[in-house]
Specification:
Length: 587
């Protein structure tokens, strides 16, 4: 088991080069091949038209204007107009196509991340804050969309125009061309030196946005506690700190992003000056024409102006790369709870076996140490012990929310890890201390994931509930099955939520039913009703009760004491109580 594997904040610290990130971005736009090819053609046509126009202007000056050949001037004028209109159409089409590509990528990317989040194990969510994850799904993906839809093709188009202009400058007059390109070398070196720094500033800015989102999420989630303890000031201060960090990071990113622009302008002006001075000297020595110098100056502009525009797009590019960096790490994660092949089966009459199971959440503190016990089908087992002893951890291991660090858990003689999640969740039902309910009605919540009864009519469902004795529990809700539950489920008491989770678990007919403090918030009358329902379950259902209140476990067939990494069979309730008191005295 690899600890901290899922800590995405830590992964953010290991920066990758732009090329590494771009290579991983490529498959994402690969599906949009047709649109990309079309956008590429329109972009290329636009670049060619933009490049040919100055040549035509220079030619017209030297061959038509200077020779007073007016008809030639008119014809070239109309051709130029046609070229500009065509270039505009190409530009428009390309923007349209890339807008669609950007949205498609955004849509797919968000789906992919969400799907990945569903596959990742619980450890991932313990190691990361949900606010930061939301920020990655919402904001970072949109940074990539913005870059693809608004900048990508323009970016490539500008590079094509620049290369074309550079080729023209060198081929028309090599020495003047080279002189014009010298300042570009300065720009190249400057960009190389600063781009890693710019990207890091943008990555930090995105990280602080994620941190702020996590802070908001935590405050909203714990709002009741904040008010109850009058800790508004504490959370306000915490928010102010992350907001301040985000503000400063955004300013730093802005400074970094806008640094290139003035530097590019400076180098571009230097190039114009060099061409003008050297060009006039060449004309004076009869080695160059006026028309060519004008074309040359336009091409110098065609070379440096894209550079300036690239500088403006550069920040978007760096932000998109930083965003993609943060997203692609999540996409590359694999669940360490994958289904394992069946290596061997053991012959046994026990339904569930813990064989020398050790477990740790963080690799440092061992919660369970070589724990062994066996459970038989159809019996009721109770796990008791002091707070923090490891009872819930045992239940989590049975539900395979985690894998043991060492040792094996066998379910019906087969390694628990070799069952698919469908089969495992069918066999094992779970009622938690604080169950999670979805927005919707009680009916929807109790039939969640239950394919067998999901299409039952209200009447059929009621008959079924009566059969199991569950109908009495619905009396606790004003509108019965149709009672609405809001997203936060705050309209219900904890006890009511536990009742819904109870009905949900019983209706799934699990072979093993685990109740983790599932009745801790329920009154004694209702608790008796639950006991009757549990007794009505098929004889083959194994019940595992985790409880603090000892009256709830008096009918258990066997009691286990869980403490300090060990599980001991306690025999009778009397003996269990005695052991518990001894343990408490020791601690
Ligand atoms: N997700 C987690 N990450 C790290 N440590 C955890 C996690 N969940 C529980 N622990 C630690 O594991 C130990 C056992 O916790 P567990 O919840 O299994 O105890 P418990 O016996 O069920 O306690 P309680 O009776 O209070 O429910 C505790 O020390 C707890 O702090």
């Amino acid at each position: 088991m690899q600890y901290n594997l899922y800590d995405i904040q830590q992964a953010d610290q290991t920066r990758k080069s732009s090329m590494q990130v771009i290579r991983r971005l490529a498959p994402l736009v690969g599906d949009e091949k047709n649109r990309l090819i079309l956008a590429w053609i329109t972009m290329l046509l636009n670049a060619v038209l933009t490049l040919v126009a100055p040549l035509l202007i220079g030619y017209t000056i030297d061959h038509d204007i200077q020779q007073h050949h007016m008809q030639g001037v008119w014809i070239k004028g109309w051709i130029l107009l046609g070229m500009y209109i065509l270039a505009w159409v190409c530009n428009y089409l390309q923007t349209l196509l890339m807008g669609v590509v950007g949205q498609e990528v955004l849509y797919k990317l968000r789906n992919q991340i969400f799907q990945k989040l569903q596959e990742l194990p619980l450890a991932f969510f313990h190691q990361n804050q949900s606010g930061d994850l939301i920020s990655r799904i919402n904001s970072d993906t949109d940074k990539i969309n913005q870059f693809i839809s608004q900048s990508l093709m323009r970016f490539i188009g500008l590079i094509v125009t620049m290369v074309g202009a550079g080729i023209f400058l060198i081929s028309v007059h090599p020495s003047l061309g080279l002189a014009a390109l010298v300042p570009a070398a300065g720009i190249f070196i400057f960009t190389q030196l600063t781009s890693k720094w710019v990207k890091n500033k943008n990555a930090y800015s995105l990280r602080t946005t994620g941190g702020m989102s996590a802070e908001i999420q935590e405050s909203l989630h714990n709002f009741k506690t904040i008010i109850a303890f009058n800790r508004r000031d504490y959370f306000r201060n915490r928010f102010e700190t992350v907001n301040q960090q985000n503000y400063q990071a955004a300013i730093q990113a802005g400074v970094a992003n806008n640094l290139l622009m003035p530097v590019y302008s400076l180098f571009s002006n230097m190039a114009q000056l060099i061409v003008l001075a050297y060009g006039i000297y060449l004309i004076a020595t009869a080695h160059f024409t006026v028309g060519l110098l004008i074309s040359f100056l336009v091409y110098v502009n065609r070379f440096y102006s894209p550079l300036q525009q690239i500088a403006a797009l550069w920040s978007g590019f760096q932000t998109a790369l930083a965003g993609w960096d943060r997203i692609s790490y999540i996409l590359s994660l694999e669940s360490d709870l994958a289904v394992q092949p069946v290596t061997h089966r053991i012959e046994t009459n026990y339904q569930l076996i813990f064989d020398k199971v050790s477990f740790s959440y963080d690799g440092k503190h061992e919660i369970l140490h070589e724990v062994s016990f066996q459970l038989q089908k159809g019996k009721t087992y109770a796990f008791i012990g002091p707070t923090g002893g490891g009872k819930t951890t045992i239940a989590s291991l049975i539900a395979r929310l985690y894998d043991p660090v060492s040792g094996t858990i066998y379910l019906d003689g087969q390694d628990l890890r070799s069952y698919t999640s469908e089969i495992r969740t069918k066999k094992i039902g779970f009622i938690l201390q604080d169950p999670f309910l979805f927005t919707g009605t009680i009916r929807e919540n109790i039939l969640y994931g239950n394919e067998k009864y999901v299409r039952y009519t209200e009447k059929e469902l009621m008959r079924l509930l009566q059969e199991y004795g569950l109908d009495v529990l619905l009396d606790k809700f004003d509108e019965g099955l149709q009672t609405r539950i809001t997203s936060a489920a705050n309209v219900l008491s904890l006890g009511q939520k536990q009742l819904i989770a109870f009905i949900r678990a019983v209706l799934r007919h699990p072979e093993i039913l685990i109740l983790d403090e599932a009745t801790a918030n329920i009154d004694t009358v209702t608790e008796k009703q639950l006991e009757t329902i549990l007794n009505k379950l098929p004889e083959t259902t194994t019940r595992i009760l985790i409880a603090h209140r000892l009256n709830t476990i008096e009918h258990a067939d066997e009691i286990f004491l869980v403490n300090a990494g060990e599980v001991k069979a306690a025999g009778s309730l009397q003996h269990a109580l005695h052991m518990l008191m001894q343990e408490e005295r020791k601690s």
